[in-house]
# Entry
Amino acid sequence: MFATPVDIAANTVYFASFAPAGNYAADSSYFVNAYDNAPLHALATGASGGNGVYVYGASGFPTSTFNANNYWVDVLFEPAP
# Structure
């Protein structure tokens, strides 16, 4: 959980990425197709760069992709009242 909620804007691509101690779960080729769970939309890989992005190392912005994998970072989304 973030200390302060993050405001998001419509029609903007966001990344959620976290793997404590380097552990993760993945599904190969998951993002070959887009997925919708209104009001959120997960793009198919290639629609706006890669989806299922990752980075190796202690920090950095995730930009690498492999096989349209989904690395299962859960996002808690709460619409504004």
